Amino acid sequence: MAKLDRAALRRYRDEMEKKYGAGSGSRVRIVVGMGTCGIAAGAREAWEEIKRSVEEFGIQSEVDLTKTGCMGLCQVEPTVEIAVPGMPTVIYSKVTAEVAKRLVRKHIIEKTMVDGHILDRPAIDIVAAGKSARGA
């Protein structure tokens, strides 16, 4: 495969967003890393608190909550990826049950990223362009 430059990668990301709808639509996507390392670090507790908080705030119809295997981030587990329409996708690290509840309230309801646990922020070109999600 030929080497891609930054502009080609951006075009590819944009094509994939159009094709697969990354960050589009009206639903929030929450993905909890539930590989062995995540579970050992407390991902089950984070999952349960996210589920409980989504129900408590009455936003079940707006949220797709899913589990995934290892995200390759063992040293910072539990990890949670949140994609809210109109906001960049963010990966949060070391998500305890307490942090999980705060993520639902702050990031999803109040639409404010939660400092202190952000592992991966979107590239500056995505934020500057007002894109809703980071391409995968």
In words, what does this structure look like?
The protein is 40% helix and 16% strand. The protein is an alpha+beta fold and 136 residues long. It has a single domain (25-129), classed as Glutaredoxin, CATH 3.40.30.10. A hairpin with a 6-residue loop joins β3 (80-83) and β4. It is globular and about 45 Å long.
Q: How many runs of DSSP E, i.e. beta strands?
A: 5
What's the end-to-end separation, in Å? 18 Å
Provide the β-strand percentage band: 15-25%
**What coarse outline follows from CA principal-axis ratios?**
globular
Unreliable spans: 131-136
Mean pLDDT, to the nearest integer, reads 84
Specify the helix fraction band.
25-40%
Number of helices: 5
CATH architectural category: 3-Layer(aba) Sandwich
CATH topology: Glutaredoxin
Q: What is the helix/strand order?
A: HEHHEEEHEH
The CATH superfamily appears as: Glutaredoxin
User: Structural class from helices and strands?
Assistant: alpha+beta
Quick gist of this model?
By secondary structure, the chain is an alpha+beta fold. It has helices at 6-20, 36-41, 43-56, 97-109, 124-129, and strands spanning 28-33, 63-68, 80-83, 90-92, 118-120.
Q: Secondary structure elements and their pairing?
A:
Elements lengths: L5 H15 L7 E6 L2 H6 L1 H14 L6 E6 L11 E4 L6 E3 L4 H13 L8 E3 L3 H6 L7
Helix pairs in contact: 3-4
Features:
single chain; 136 residues; alpha+beta; Glutaredoxin; 5-stranded mixed beta sheet; globular; disordered C terminus
